[in-house]
Specification:
disordered N terminus; 8% strand; 7 helices; 35% helix; 202 residues
């Protein structure tokens, strides 16, 4: 990609918005936003039985008084081995929320960091000309996942079957997408769309 013509924003005379591409990183904010995304992916499918769901225990183990032992009403009490569970994790809801301003800020920070670390490149992605370059670039770095930010459906169809490539539209990009990939390629055609979305038109 680096050797193709017109593959940078400078050659396209595109002015980058510093509110998006020059934002200092705040690791605490990014971590908080990522924590929400990962937490929301949890299914909450852990299951256990309460004393009402455990079989048996219909009869009192021994009489109330006179045995010298503590009184017991059922062998399925949580105090007993193989008894029910007191606070069951059934259908636990792991959903958390974070406001849109924090989400967008985290994306801006991560994009800025990738750009400063030279892990983000801009390109005029042409399916006929650049598809082979993208594929070859990914094959050279098999340990790195590449994120392609583009709203072109043809690009998505051409690259979605590649194991190390993830194509995301500018309208749907979030911090989790950026955290999951090492390299980022931004289609020049969606720079303004991306900036408009992350700044809410400001």
């Amino acid at each position: 990609m680096a050797d193709t013509k017109k593959n940078t924003t400078e050659e396209k005379n595109v002015k980058l918005n510093p509110k998006i591409w020059e934002v200092p990183i705040n690791k605490d904010l990014v971590a908080q936003v990522l924590y929400v995304y990962f937490s929301n992916e949890r299914k909450g499918t852990a299951n256990a039985k309460t004393r009402g769901a455990v079989s048996g225990g219909g009869k009192k183990p021994w009489r109330q008084k006179g045995t010298g032992r503590a009184r017991q009403g059922s062998i399925r009490s949580p105090l007993w081995t193989k008894g029910g569970v007191t606070f069951v994790p059934n259908d636990r809801n792991w959903k958390k929320t974070v406001n849109r301003k924090m989400k967008n800020k985290a994306v801006c920070m991560m994009l800025s960091e990738r750009l400063s670390n030279k892990e983000l490149t801009f390109s005029d992605i042409d399916i006929k000309k650049d598809l082979k370059n993208i594929r070859d670039s990914v094959k050279k770095e098999l340990t790195s996942k590449t994120l392609v930010i583009s709203s072109d459906e043809n690009i998505e169809k051409a690259l979605r079957n590649m194991e190390k490539v993830n194509v995301v539209k500018a309208e749907k990009i979030n911090a989790k997408h950026l955290a999951d990939c090492k390299k980022v390629i931004v289609d020049n055609e969606i720079i303004k769309i991306l900036e408009e979305r992350l700044t809410n038109g400001k």
